[in-house]
Amino acid sequence: MTLHVRLAQPAELPAVYALRHEVFVVGQAVPEELERDALDAVADHAVALLDGTVVGTGRLVDGRIDVDGRLVPATRGQVGTIGRMAVAQAHRGSGAGRALLDLLVARAAEQGLPEVELHAQVHARSFYERAGFVAHGPTYDEAGIEHVGMRRR
Fold first, then answer.
1. Nearest CA-CA partner of 66 in 76, 81, 54
2. CA-CA-CA-CA dihedral for 142, 145, 146, 150, to nearest 10
3. What backbone torsions phi and psi does residue 10 show, to the nearest 5 degrees?
4. Under a CB-based contact definition with an 8 Å cutoff, are residues 47 and 6 in contact?
């Protein structure tokens, strides 16, 4: 079985949202109303596919997203925010997460964004550090989970 990572097609979005629901709402008890937001409509979504099945996803939004999940005015074109990184439990450690992250960073570069940032769950901090992200600021609670802001130029 070969893993394929690419930008999602519109027909794949229901599977993307189902995976995110499984990982965040069911697996981490994130409130359902926080998992989906209006930024999904304007984000670039990436998928990791194994035999045509979505086993991983992430998204890129043009602009800085604050800790309350709102797009910060006047930041479009300056920074991209990577988020909603999710890999099905059975496929964690397979390289799917890193492949998705690399694709989203490359997509930000294609869009001319000089910097990308993300809100990392503290337990995943080292994963993002290995990909060149640097933590900034204090840790904070987001949806009941401790996070830290991270950036990469």
1. 81
2. -60
3. -50, -40
4. yes
Burial class (CB in 10 A: 0-12, 13-18, 19+), 76: middle
pLDDT digits (tens, 9 = 90+) for 6-37: 999 999 999 999 999 999 999 999 999 999 99
- Give the C-alpha distances (Å, rounded to integers) separating 153 from 32, 106, 132: 32, 11, 9
Q: How many residues does the chain have?
A: 153
- In the block, tokens 């990909």 appear at 131
Cβ neighbours of 117 (radius 10 Å): 21
Q: Which amino acid, 6?
A: R
Domain limits of the chain?
3-152
- The CATH number that domain 3-152 falls under is 3.40.630.30
Q: How far is CA 148 from the centre of its chain?
A: 14
| pLDDT tens digits, 31-79 | 999 999 999 999 999 999 999 999 999 999 999 998 888 899 889 999 9
